[in-house]
Design brief:
The chain has 8 helices and 6 strands; from the N terminus they run H-E-H-E-H-E-H-H-E-H-H-E-H-E. By secondary structure, the protein is an alpha/beta fold. Strands 3-2-4-5-1-6 form a 6-stranded parallel beta sheet, sandwiched between helices. Helix 1 runs parallel beside helix 7. The longest helix has 27 residues. The protein binds adenosine-5'-triphosphate and magnesium ion. Adenosine-5'-triphosphate (ATP) binds next to helix 2. Belongs to the Cob(I)alamin adenosyltransferase family. Its main location: cytoplasm.
């Protein structure tokens, strides 16, 4: 990376952190106030998406409005979608064509990612959504399918009371920095490696 590019990146980072600091400082000044959180669930272990869907359930229990964007994945037969999408307070979008090694077509993956991101952007600009789940978003950033700076700026500029959960492996440092809560789920063991297939209720 050239010095200029590195400088611009540092400046964008500083501006983003200044916005984050302003939000945090304002919330400390009113310590009884609540704020919308950005949560990042990452790591190689099982439990990232299912934790996000746990928060969907909690939110719905409180009568909150929830948006879910499932990037990368194309299956619409999951238990979570069947259960949650019948709730009138849920907007559920499956926005993938499958995994990148299935499509093997980078241009198509980028087009699909941009279409999906447009759906997410609408939610991130709509304060009526109390919780937005961006499931498997990290892959789109890590493959460079979406502009990471633009995505982070959009997350930082969302409605102040809106919660966002981002899931996916290998969350970047910049995303971790922006987040309020980051959990890294370790892969201690997984039944798949013993030849057990994905099973309803546990994996889908
Ligand atoms: P879940 O949706 O079960 O919470 P996840 O979001 O943490 O899983 P993903 O990488 O999105 O993990 O993968 C989803 C699918 O892959 C699930 O069927 C899950 O059981 C399986 N899986 C997750 N982690 C592993 C792993 N370390 N080894 C093998 N399979 C895994
Ligand atoms: Mg997942």
């Amino acid at each position: 990376m050239t010095d200029t590019a590195e400088n611009q990146r540092n400046q964008r980072h500083a501006a983003r952190m200044a916005r984050k600091k302003a939000i945090i400082d304002a919330s400390i000044a009113r310590a009884d106030q609540k704020k919308g959180l950005l949560l990042v669930l990452t790591g190689n272990g099982k439990g990232k998406s299912s934790s996000a869907f746990g928060m969907v359930g909690r939110s719905l229990g409180h009568g909150m409005k929830v948006g879910v964007c499932q990037f990368l994945k194309s299956r619409t037969d999951t238990g979570e979608e069947a259960f949650f999408s019948r709730d009138p307070n849920v907007a559920w979008h499956v926005l993938g064509d499958g995994f990148t090694w299935e499509t093997q077509n980078r241009e198509q993956d980028i087009a699909t990612s941009l279409r999906g991101w447009a759906v997410a952007q609408h939610m991130l600009a709509d304060a009526s959504y109390d919780l937005v789940v961006l499931d498997e978003l990290t892959y789109l950033l890590n493959y460079g399918y979406l502009d990471a700076d633009q995505v982070l700026d959009t997350l930082a500029a969302r409605p102040p009371m809106q919660h966002v959960v981002v899931t996916g492996r290998a969350a970047s440092e910049a995303l971790r920095d922006l987040a309020d809560t980051v959990s890294e789920i370790a892969d201690v063991k997984h039944a798949y490696r013993e030849g057990i297939t994905a099973q309803p209720g546990i994996d889908l």
